[in-house]
UniProtKB/TrEMBL annotation:
This protein is involved in the repair of mismatches in DNA. It is possible that it carries out the mismatch recognition step. This protein has a weak ATPase activity. Pfam families: MutS_I, MutS_II, MutS_III, MutS_IV, MutS_V. It comes from Halosimplex litoreum. One of its GO terms (biological process) is mismatch repair. This is DNA mismatch repair protein MutS. ATP binds at residues 626-633. Belongs to the DNA mismatch repair MutS family. Gene3D superfamilies: 1.10.1420.10, DNA repair protein MutS, domain I (3.40.1170.10), MutS, connector domain (3.30.420.110), P-loop containing nucleotide triphosphate hydrolases (3.40.50.300).
């Protein structure tokens, strides 16, 4: 292939310089994409491709007008591409081009929604080179920045579970782009996890950016020399490396938003309730399991009136707090707002006019804010005193922590900036900063003079036709301006003979002639000069204003956050009032008592039956049983959500509640979505269980829904049993465990801190009514068949199920029936032996001997569990009672067993052992 030259050659060599996926190169008034990039972009964005000939070859080409690039960039970036932009600039001999910025998913300012958009860097120190399973303990450093708001957080993870903890942190932020440090780049396991669980693009930034010294320098430069010490991360090298890499990356991509990153925050996990990604999903905090926003907790409780308020409320739900003090503060503010209806409405109405100051700060810093944006800054800053007054006027609010929220921003600086902007900018500025019309009269004397002259010149032009008409007597005479001819005088054909000599003809049209005169040409030059000067001056003044705003990014951010907090608190109050929620009492004990509680989301769409929950040290582990569809999951999620809402500072859906603060909420519930992802549900189930058993503490809340369901009954029941014991004895977390394994209810009878509760149902004349109330004690029946009936399963199947169930209860056997309506039994499945027995004539005697039940009374009525055996075995706690009650055993056999038990294997010589075994065999043979 011939080497491309000319414009395509230039494109291809610029492309070589960058590791971006796509290059957009300015060619005059367009940004062009060539070759493969053209095809890709055309495909993604529905652009037309044409062919560009270049020295005998031809290349695909696609382009967008200069001013339209941003939406195309946004679309590409949203699809995960990194796009380099090369701009054209003038040189002595023509022009040249160079890459001025790289737009990436994590550094792009334009967003189509209000959500935070995170760029993250992850590094690992120590832990060997061999990936996440390497030897020695690793420390992970994570930095996340939201360039659209200037938020910047760092954290470190170390210890035995550092890898999974680091991944969990990443999932929490759901970053748009991740910069893996040099050690992580070769760790495919880690990267695969990130790919699987987030939509992040992985960008390989230069290794030097992660170097400790360099990173530390950058962090100091960005946030101030003392910051590392004051934030307490001076010794956290991994965190510092990650932070430095983020700063370097943001800088090098050329987005120009560094100035908006004003504050480094150390993300101290111990301040927040641990909520892993699975739990966030299970509890449907921000989207439902089906991935819909509507129907999520956030969607339900969100009544915010600003995008910043919504963003903050969402963040609160995703990161509930552990600090009693902080929660008391939020609760008091919500309570005050809940009690002050009028003031609350006014406050929300006022806040409704606020723009997103945090985002505007980033736009100002990057230089992309226009005059309308600065007006928005001014109008929003000006709301602060208005909101402050509203709060001050209402005693109940003024004495609440809301007052402090509004004290936080530098009100004097905000007022001064607002006043300056107001003085400088016209009321309703245009959306472009190059065409003038931005600056108020009276702001700058020099500008006023130029504007005065400019307007006088325009007036002169406006009056020119009348003057000329009077002078020449021509009636059809007008003055106009266009791009090619500039200003001209136009005279109708019929009167051209009256045109004076100084009129110089420049163009002939069908019905008229165009002329210029010296005076007009001179005025035109003056107007052009004044126009240019005016636009230039206005732009200069505007740029200064924008810089002034950027320099005050912190004031904008603080004010934005204060207003957002008022909005979020008011939203919580609105929801509490509208739904009759109550203020929960917070405590440090291990309790959770809820009187007449409801599920915050389900109560919106259903006539919800409230129910009670009572947990404390004596009722630390609740085994929740009840028919399918009776409301077990709802009840448990409700417990988790009430706890979570309490730790957001919100009121809760209950008549009253006392909530012992937790350090984490862990859930393991249905795994539909994992099924869809093609991961084995049972594997996922066990991974989640494992995570809970490792992470939960006695201060946690654990919700387990049907653990063990994904495997064979005996397997499942054993795991459920052992996990329950472990939680009760070793973890001691507050736990709700819904199960269809009836056997687990025995735990409630045997272990003091375990209690049974069940969701009540009523059966009358074969019909089941779900009462939805929760009562103490285990459920007494399985209603599965009734539910099948209700669901419309054909009559014969339902009837036959009842028969099978009856037979199971009586004989622990199911006979397999042939197709001729079941008169002949072809085989019998004996549950105790797990074998089929071919049995003509239907004598299914196989189960009889072993049917003797340990008599726990706990049922064994469910088809899935074939109950009584497992109960007998497990409840007895071991092998001694494996053969029930002993009555079936011969005394001779007992003797052998006794001897066997008493024998000390370590003390007995092998030969003697052999002899004994032979004796026993002989004795048993005689049996
Ligand atoms: P389970 O986990 O026992 O199978 P679910 O918790 O999934 O049952 O609840 C089944 C249905 O009952 C759901 O549609 C739920 O909305 C509804 N439901 C649950 N609890 C209540 C309640 N207390 N009041 C009204 N409807 C409820």
């Amino acid at each position: 292939m011939t080497e491309a030259t000319g414009i395509v050659g230039e494109f291809l060599s610029l492309k070589e310089e960058t590791d971006a996926d796509i290059l957009a190169m300015q060619c005059g008034d367009f940004y062009e994409f060539f070759a493969e990039d053209a095809e890709l972009v055309a495909d993604e964005l529905d652009l037309k491709v044409s062919q560009k000939g270049s020295h005998g070859s031809s290349y695909p080409m696609a382009g967008v007008p200069l001013d339209d690039l941003t939406p195309y960039l946004s679309a590409l970036v949203e699809r995960g591409y990194r796009v380099a932009v090369a701009d054209q600039y003038e040189t002595e001999d023509g022009h040249a081009r160079e890459i001025t910025r790289i737009v990436t998913p994590g550094t792009h300012l334009e967003t189509s929604d209000d959500d935070a958009r995170y760029l993250a860097a992850v590094v690992r120190d120590g832990g060997g080179d061999g990936g996440s399973s390497g030897s020695g303990e690793a420390t992970y450093g994570i930095a996340v920045a939201d360039v659209t708001t200037g938020q910047f957080l760092v954290t470190e993870q170390s210890g035995a579970d550092a890898t999974s903890a680091a991944l969990t942190e990443l999932y929490k932020f759901d970053p748009a782009e991740v910069l893996p440090g040099p050690e992580i780049r070769s760790d495919d396991d880690f990267l695969d996890e990130v790919r699987e669980r987030t939509d992040a693009s992985l960008s390989l930034h230069t290794t030097e950016a992660f170097a400790p010294g360099r990173a530390r320098h950058r962090v100091r430069e960005q946030f101030g020399a003392e910051t590392l010490e004051s934030v307490g991360i001076a010794d956290a090298e991994a965190a510092v490396r990650a932070a430095g890499a983020v700063i370097a990356y943001v800088d090098e991509t050329g987005a120009g938003v560094l100035a908006s990153m004003t504050r480094l925050q150390s993300f101290d996990e111990s301040a927040y309730v641990d909520l892993d990604a699975t739990t966030q999903r299970n509890l449907e905090l921000t989207e439902t399991m089906q991935g819909e926003r509507s129907g999520s907790l956030f969607d339900t409780v969100d009544h915010t009136v600003t995008s910043a308020g919504g963003r903050l409320l969402r963040e609160w739900l995703q990161r509930p707090r552990r600090s009693r003090e902080e929660l008391d503060r939020r609760q008091s503010a919500v309570a005050a707002l809940a009690e002050s209806a009028m003031a609350r409405d006014q406050l929300r109405e006022t806040l409704g006019d606020a723009y997103d100051l945090e985002r505007l700060a980033s736009k100002a810093a990057s230089g992309s804010a226009d005059a309308r944006d600065l007006r928005a800054v001014q109008e929003t800053l000006a709301l602060l005193p208005a909101v402050g007054e509203l709060v001050a006027e209402t005693e109940r609010l003024a004495s609440s922590p809301l007052g402090d929220v509004l004290e936080r921003p530098d009100r004097a600086a905000a007022a001064e900036l607002a006043a300056d902007l107001d003085e400088a900018l016209v009321e309703d500025p245009p959306g472009t900063v190059t065409q003038g019309g931005l600056i108020r009269q009276g702001f700058d004397t020099e500008l006023d003079e130029i504007v005065g002259d400019h307007e006088a010149a325009l007036d002169w032009i406006e009056e020119l036709p009348e003057r000329e008409k009077r002078k020449t007597g021509i009636t059809h005479l007008s003055v106009d301006r266009n791009k090619t001819d500039g200003y001209y005088i136009q005279v109708g054909k019929s009167e051209t003979d009256q045109v004076p000599a100084e009129y110089e003809q420049i163009k002939t049209l069908k019905n008229s002639e165009r002329y210029v005169i010296d005076e007009l040409a001179e005025k035109e030059r003056e107007i052009l000069r004044l126009e240019e000067r005016r636009h230039e001056m206005e732009r200069e003044i505007f740029e200064r204003l924008r810089e002034r705003v950027a320099a005050q990014a912190e004031v904008l951010q603080e004010t934005g956050r204060a207003l957002a907090e008022c909005d979020a608190l008011a939203s919580l109050a609105v929801h509490a009032v509208r739904n009759d929620w109550s203020r929960p009492e917070l405590s440090d004990g291990r309790e959770l008592s809820v009187d007449q509680g409801r599920h915050p989301v389900v109560e919106q769409t259903t006539q919800f039956v409230p129910n009670d929950l009572y947990m404390d040290d004596d009722r630390q582990f609740l085994v929740v049983t009840g028919p399918n569809m009776s409301g077990k999951s709802t009840y448990m999620r409700q417990a988790a959500l009430i706890t979570l809402l309490a730790q957001v500072g919100s009121f809760v859906p209950a008549r009253s509640a006392r909530v012992g603060l937790v350090d984490g909420i862990y859930t393991r519930v249905g795994a539909l979505d994992e099924l869809a992802q093609g991961r084995s549900t049972f594997m996922v189930e066990m991974q989640e269980l494992s995570n809970i058993l490792h992470s939960a503490t006695e201060e946690s809340l654990v919700i387990l829904d049907e653990v063990g369901r994904g495997t064979a009954t005996y397997d499942g029941i054993s795991i459920a049993w052992a996990a329950s014991e472990y939680i009760v004895n070793n973890v001691a977390a507050k736990t709700l465990f819904a199960t269809h394994y009836h056997e687990l209810t025995v735990l409630g009878e045997e272990l003091p801190s375990v209690q049974n509760v069940h969701v009540a149902a009523d059966e009358r004349d074969g019909d089941v009514t779900f009462l939805r109330t929760v009562e103490d004690g285990p459920t007494d029946r399985s209603y599965g068949i009734h539910v099948a009936d209700l669901a419309g399963v054909p009559g014969p199947v339902v009837d036959r199920s009842r028969e099978v169930l009856d037979r199971l209860r009586e004989e622990e056997a199911i006979e397999v029936r042939g197709s001729d309506s079941g008169s002949t039994t072809q085989a019998v499945f004996d549950l105790s032996s797990g074998q089929f027995e071919t049995a003509a004539g239907g004598s299914a005697g196989g189960g009889d001997e072993t049917a003797a039940d340990a008599g726990s009374g706990s049922g064994g009525e469910q088809l899935a569990t074939d109950g009584s055996h497992a109960v007998g075995e497990s409840a007895g706690g071991g092998s001694e009672t494996a053969t029930d009650a002993g009555s079936a055993l011969d005394p001779e056999v007992e003797d052998v067993l006794d001897e066997l038990r008493d024998l000390d294997v370590n003390e007995t010589p092998p030969v003697e052992l052999m002899a004994k075994v032979q004796d026993w065999q002989a004795e048993l043979d005689e049996e």
